[in-house]
Design goal:
11 helices, 30% helix, binds zinc ion, single chain, GroES-like_sf, 2 domains, elongated, Quinone Oxidoreductase, Chain A, domain 1, alpha/beta, six-stranded parallel β-sheet, ADH_Zn_CS, metal-binding, Rossmann fold, zinc ion binding, 402 residues, eight-stranded mixed β-sheet, ADH-like_C
């Protein structure tokens, strides 16, 4: 057939019509969106220390919603508390807030993530807080408001959608949630975003004292995931004079791999005098300029002042939940030493976005971030995963979907 201009027009019209016809899938539609199952599997904490993996229908995806196929989710200390005691009174609840996955479907109104990056099906995402009607929570509003008062997926009361937590194979991100396109990070890094944001925030809080500098001597007390990530964040800032303090030699060895210059095992010292002398020794005869307190033990808070020089600073971030009262001597510990004390809890949205860059930097300078994830369990073994976490057998325990 000879193509005259009228023919060309007709063909073009036909092609355009077929593209606009909603019944015919466009050739560019990703395969993933066609493979969405009818039901999702959600691990619900249905009683203390017990999850049931339940099956729920995958709901309609509204114009502002995003359906995500979950790839993995870390187990947080908060999950451990919920598992053991349900302090928030949420049972039955779909837990898991350190999750990440791939967009498989999204509403027509969804165009960009919370940082202004375009979003499309196939992108890898994480969520942060869910906006309510709180004008104080804004994207680049550093230190003004942390997410402490906001809702997050994985800590929501159950509703008739049920796909509210990341310990699942699908989660429905609803309109008004903060969501970030993190397709340029690998799965392990994405699983670590949430805990890392806690440390990016803590270090931002610490910087407000004006004491953290290139050659500052810094003590990090507590070498669980939080303390270890603290060391990593400090290293990406060029701080190298770090002494790690813990009672577990394995964790102290990891702290050194993460970039601590020296370590002090408190089990080897009797009494706070001997311990603070050991910290001083580790700094070549100096007390610390700054200290990060990363344990939830009241005695650790009481002790840490003794490691800090006059005019030095302290960031307390270990008490994520109420761990009881700690005793200090206001005269010796605070006043006469003129200590600059900041507290830190969770993070702001801006810290969350900064964390993506931190993770790339940490990788670039060769920090062993991925080794923080010591155990990976499939969703069906979530009870076992939590028991492993409670037994403190590893560092970060993650649920990773097949
Ligand atoms: Zn967490």
């Amino acid at each position: 057939m000879e193509m005259n201009s009228a023919n060309v027009e007709a063909v073009v019209k036909q092609v355009l019509e077929s593209m606009l016809d909603k019944n015919i899938p466009s050739p560019s539609a990703p395969a993933a969106s066609q493979a969405i199952p009818k039901t999702a599997h959600v691990a619900m904490l249905t009683s203390l220390e017990h999850y049931d993996v339940k099956e729920f229908p995958i709901p309609e995806v509204g114009d502002g919603d995003i359906l995500v196929k979950v790839e993995g989710c870390g187990i947080c200390g908060t999950d451990a508390h919920e598992f053991k005691k349900d302090p928030f009174g949420l049972i039955p609840v779909a837990l898991g807030h350190e999750g990440t996955g791939e967009i498989v479907k999204m509403g027509k109104n969804v165009k960009m993530d919370s940082a202004g990056k375009p979003l499309k099906v196939g992108d890898k995402v994480v969520t942060c807080m869910i906006f309510k009607d709180d004008p104080d929570i804004e994207m680049f509003d550093l230190n003004k408001k942390n997410v402490g008062g906001a809702d997050v997926y994985g800590l929501l009361p159950d509703d008739d959608i049920h796909l509210n937590g990341w310990f699942s194979d699908y989660i429905l991100i609803r309109e008004g949630s903060s969501v970030f396109n993190v397709s340029d990070l690998d799965l392990d890094s994405r699983i670590l975003i949430e805990p890392c944001a806690v440390l990016v925030h803590a270090v931002e809080r610490a910087k407000t004292t004006g004491i953290l500098r290139f050659n500052s001597r810094v003590v990090v007390q507590g070498c669980g995931p939080i303390g270890l990530i603290c060391i990593a964040v400090l290293r990406t800032m060029g701080i190298e004079n770090i002494v790690a303090v813990d009672g577990n030699q394995q964790r102290l060895d990891f702290a050194k791999r993460m970039g601590a210059d020296k370590s002090v095992n408190f089990m080897e010292y009797k009494g706070i005098e001997a311990l603070s002398a050991a910290v001083k020794d580790a700094f070549g005869g100096h007390l610390a300029d700054f200290a990060f307190q990363c344990t939830g033990a009241p005695a650790a808070h009481s002790n840490i002042y003794k490691f800090i020089r006059n005019g030095g600073g302290l960031c307390e971030l270990g008490f994520f939940i109420n761990g009881g009262d700690a005793t200090i001597n206001p005269h010796f510990d605070l006043c006469s030493k003129e200590i600059n004390l900041v507290g830190s809890w969770v993070y702001t949205l801006r810290d969350y976005a900064t964390t993506f860059d931190f993770l790339k930097r940490a990788q670039a300078i060769g920090l062993p971030m991925k080794d923080l994830i010591t155990h990976r369990f499939p969703l069906e073994e979530i009870n076992e995963a939590h028991r492993t976490n409670l037994a403190q057998k590893g560092l970060k325990i993650a649920i990773v979907n097949k």
